[in-house]
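To illustrate this point, what follows is a protein record of this kind.

___
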Amino acid sequence: MLVLDVSRAHFHPEIQRELYVEIPKEDDLASPDEVGLLLRTMYGTREASSAFEQFFTEIVEELGFQVGVSVTCVYWRPSDMLIIWRHGDDISIVGEEDSCELVFKALSDKMILKRRAILGYGDGHDKTISLLNRMITLEVDAGRRRVVYEPDPRHIEILLHQFGFGGKKSKGVSTPSEKSKEYGDTTALDESLHTNFRSGTMRLSYVSMDLPHLQQAANKTARAMAAPFHGALARLKRAVRFLQQHPRVVQCFYEQDACTTLTIKCDSDWAGDVIDRKSTSCIQLILGKHLLRQQVSTQQVQALSSGEAEFVAVVKAGSMAMGLRSLLADMGLEIKKLVLHTDSSAALGMCKRQGLGRVRHLDTGLLWLQTFVRDGTFTIKKIKGTENSADLGTKEVPGPVSYTHLTLPTSDLV
């Protein structure tokens, strides 16, 4: 993987409108009454970001790449299976080294590029890099190649320092959340604590994207962003104390055979919120033994039964699976089967029937999944609750159970 950075990205495209700017005082050649006609986009102009996207897209299309249909910052070239993805001005090229180098040379003729690293298992290749605040390391373990992936540990250090943990006098805890009446304390926080609460909550939410066992606590805490209260602060501090005892958890993605089946696990916690009794959904998207994505979210309306809450979670899972399948197709990877797993017999029945049945109060917008189950787009299966690793994101679970769920989707956890 060749990792690049575009220098002064927004100055590359030509501007498509007439726009004048004030000339800096340091320019001795311009008179005070003169202004400059902008020839290229500049940071701060409305079209800078979209213009660079179009500029870059036109270049890679000339090189034979196809632009992603669902995600337009992903590019794939069928001739040599080369993949490019772009995040702002950060570019990664994945494929054979010779092909990557040829594309790098072609791109360098059109824009100013900074070569950050070339990741690979060969001699002379870089083995680790910090990319978008994630640490990516290539290793060989007992003859098996693997990618080790974790969030930047600096964010954990900042959280511990922010809330006064990490010293010898403070003690960590074994779980990021627990069942406690303290969390139901809706007494408003003093305004002087709002900024600290919000910044800590957003940092926890950020690192939880790569730490599945933190997402339930992060979701519950984030719900109080608009109006922080004491119960939410207590929940946030509990999660940070957990990080004091377990500051580092990494995911290890071992090399595996090509997989064309996407496994989706989903679960919900009916009326689990002690304040408004809304339910929480957790969805996991797994390719082979690799957990590609987990999402924890609060359902928008109060479900009237556990079956309804589980059905809403299954529909959400189906929607996310369709989106990921489209993204993988943009990268030249074909997913032939979508297999949904739920531990709810009621949700299973709702998915396999047609129409509302006896559950008359369901939103008809949820029923699209029934059609996709009937035509074979989705296969839906019942699994045991103990085998449903999505339970990790719906409720407070004991430490040993949390570890078991973490190791169910993926091959290894460190």
Observations:
- The chain has a mean pLDDT of 93.
